[in-house]
Amino acid sequence: xxxxxxxxxxxxxxxxxxxxxxxxxxxxxxxxxxxxxxxxxxxxxxxxxxxxxxxxxxxxxxxxxxxxxxxxxxxxxxxxxxxxxxxxxxxxxxxxxxxxxxxxxxxxxxxxxxxxxxxxxxxxxxxxxxxxxxxxxxxxxxxxxxxxxxxxxxxxxxxxxxxxxxxxxxxxxxxxxxxxxxxxxxxxxxxxxxxxxxxxxxxxxxxxxxxxxxxxxxxxxxxxxxxxxxxxxxxxxxxxxxxxxxxxxxxxxxxxxxxxxxxxxxxxxxxxxxxxxxxxxxxxxxxxxxxxxxxxxxxxxxxxxxxxxxxxxxxxxxxxxxxxxxxxxxxxxxxxxxxxxxxxxxxxxxxxxxxxxxxxxxxxxxxxxxxxxxxxxxxxxxxxxxxxxxxxxxxxxxxxxxxxxxxxxxxxxxxxxxxxxxxxxxxxxxxxxxxxxxxxxxxxxxxxxxxxxxxxxxxxxxxxxxxxxxxxxxxxxxxxxxxxx
Length: 485
Description:
Blueprint (H helix, E strand, L loop, with lengths): L1 H23 L1 E3 L6 E3 L4 H19 L5 H16 L9 E5 L6 E4 L3 E5 H6 L3 H16 L2 H16 L7 H7 L4 H6 L5 H17 L7 H10 L10 H4 L6 H15 L11 H8 L3 E2 L7 E3 L2 E4 L4 E4 L5 E4 L4 E4 L5 E7 L5 H9 L4 E11 L2 E10 L6 E10 L2 E10 L7 H8 L3 E2 L3 H4 L4 E7 L4 E2 H7 L7 H8 L6 E2 L4 E6 L1
Parallel strand pairs: 3-5
Antiparallel strand pairs: 1-2, 4-5, 6-18, 7-8, 8-9, 9-17, 10-11, 11-12, 12-16, 13-14, 14-15, 15-16, 18-21, 19-20
């Protein structure tokens, strides 16, 4: 009975503390004006954004086009000035990623990929997408999600799901990237859609055009990539497109706005993105006939048969077809292979089973086999540390101890064939780009593509790119986007 009384007192004290904490940490939402649970202050938000921004940029890289960057910053700052948080300093980045996405982290950091820019067809569409992301910041959606997670952990005493070591290998170590790709609920998405309508209209754009991009998304089925796609972090629902259209109409009516006076600016947008890189940029690495080539750093290595590859500026991730094993290729901060191997083997939870000097294609290297403890059980890791052109490149191949023997030969076969790239044909590979062209005769979009010598197997891709059905009649002198080298 004494234990029960003590438990009840402890439970009551914890509940009371939690209740007081919740009351104390309620804050006024800048958008709604209502008080809501918020364990993250605005200053903490800003500090988090400043900390996470370098992680995002180093992982995906900035797209090297000052004209595009300046354009996004100009429109973003113009929109931020009419938002619900005009005093917050916003930062806008164009990322060098082919994935179709835009996202934001707390504190006013907004990211747009070149991939999404290629698929948009007017300034008005872009304004809607940008306004949507600014809305996530002004409504403090990410901070709200974090607050809910903190309460869940406080009330239930939950720990981290992944160990830091396993998360590092799986590409989940970056808290900034996890935060960037929080999946928003329908209420948050609906609110941000409304804010996108409001902010884009306030700077003179036709918010009705925002729905066009969602029509394209509904037709798409993006595969895996180096970051989640828009649909995985901004879930579409059957009524969402209709809600955007009705929401825009309602906003126009409420504020007595004549839609015909609002800008769409299709030609201006096409001029802006003419020449933008489409898809993967081979200079950062590409896979051809089962081999990964990196023209900039001039190396190559074979990829295990049928393994998936995700390439980012900071690492190459490879996964077995059954998702039971993975490999990561990256760079070490250490000056020598021996130092890199020692640093890896001495981390907490690591047990070194093999540490042997070797050579890979003539380069000094160290081969390491390690068991690493994790909350999910021990992982077995096959590593190669290779000295190459003044750097130390690193391979880690890992799986559970039970599954590891089935994959070790494939891992070693890939790591052990790392070599210098000298073949000019593999080095001087050009990326595909978006080229804006003018239709020479009125015809169906399919016939227009045939006139422009677009391969039949890529017609559907061009249909999505231009948001035109293949059967649609395209008038003479219309400007469209073509993928070319």
